Amino acid sequence: MSDFRLLPDLARRDVGGAVVSANDEAFATRENLITPGPAVFDPSTFGPKGKVYDGWETRRRREPGHDEAVVRLGAPGVVRGIVVDTAWFTGNYPPEAAVDGLAGDTWVPLVARSPIKGDTENAFDVQCDDRITHVRLRIFPDGGVARLRVHGVAKPDPALLAALGSVDLAAIENGGRVTACSNLFYSSPQNLLLPGPARSMGEGWETARRRDDGNDWVELALAGPAVVRVAELDTSWFLHNAPGSASLQGRLSDASPWEPLLPRTPLEPDTRHRFVLPGAGPVTQVRMDVFPDGGMARLRLHGSFVPQA
Predict the structure, then answer these.
(1) Which of 32, 76, 206, 257 satisfies CB 3.0 to 4.6 Å to 186 for a cystine?
(2) What is the reported pLDDT for 2?
(3) Bridge-partner residues for 51, per DSSP?
(4) What's the pLDDT tens digit per position in 243-262?
(5) Which GO BP terms apply (predicted)?
(6) Helices (H) and strands (E) in the chain, counts
């Protein structure tokens, strides 16, 4: 993927992230930094502390220094990009920001102190291969940030996965990720791999209506080489726009041919479908085709790693 923003956001609240500390949140609470979805703005909302912002905002500094907030990633992993989103902050955004990551017990730089713009998704590529568990956002000297997005690939504890045995091989928290898809008109396909059930149609993956003879699809990289034994295709909340049918294929590498895992199978709307798969060989990639288009809430691929994984 050329755009790191297509990778999962490891810090989102619905992945398990949390803002564990902030030195100041006088105007707007720190927890807003990791709220899923874009920040919203209502010009009419004022509270006891002034204008209500959907973000994190600190007071005006009257002495040297900077403000900072620390986020525990919901899925520790390798960070490939950071977005410091200052949406709706126009006269009160910080002119500069920096981001560090906690690798073990050491803070390492992810984004050097850099200029940022107001009301903008300020995107930064990250060149660091360490496993990061927390990130620290520093703003200079003060101001407001709407969202902090930490895009990357989860790197779970191998001992935990081994102890669990059968796991969801596609889950973001276990290292699964979407690598390609045909259409993301309404929502990101990474939503398919989020923890827990979808709470609305907006928390799934939905494509535009097709007006041709083709179909939509999504490709995944699993957490590692594994045998997939049960597939769960969940169309919850999609009442009149679920796919009519779906199929699954798997392969071991980019050079390997796609092999069938689940033949094209009819689907019901607003339903959690579970399919026991035949004993196919190990795969590292899975492709789901939906016919012809529509929405899916979650995709679970339960199985176990092969010994070399």
Answers:
(1) 206
(2) 52
(3) 46
(4) 999 999 999 999 999 999 99
(5) allantoin catabolic process; purine nucleobase metabolic process
(6) 1, 21
List, as one string, the DSSP characters of 137-163. EEEES--EESEEEEEEEE---HHHHHH
Residues 245 and 167 in one domain: yes
Which phi and psi angles does 288 have, rounded to 5°? -110, 125
Q: Tokens 């026991």 sit at which residue? A: 276
| CATH code where residue 233 lies | 2.60.120.260
On whether both 33 and 145 belong to a single domain, the answer is yes
Over the range 19-58, which residues count as b (16 or more CB within 10 Å of their CB) and which as e? beebeebebbebebbbbeeebebeeeeeeeeebebbbbbb
pLDDT tens per residue, range 34-45: 999 999 988 777
Domain that holds residue 31: 4-154
3-state helix, strand, coil in the chain (%, to 5): 10, 45, 45
User: Can you name the residues that pair with 274 across neighbouring β-strands?
Assistant: 232
Instruction: Report in angstroms the alpha-carbon separations of 95 from 24, 64, 110, 146, 257.
Output: 17, 15, 18, 14, 50
For residue 33, give every residue at least 6 positions away whose Cβ sits within 8 Å of its Cβ, in sequence order, or none. 11, 19, 55, 56, 69, 71, 137, 145, 146, 147, 148
User: Model confidence over 202-231: pLDDT tens digits?
Assistant: 999 999 999 999 999 999 999 999 999 999
Give the predicted TM-score (pTM) of the model: 0.86
Q: Cis link prior to 292 (omega < 30° from 0)?
A: yes
Tokens of 20: 């564990």
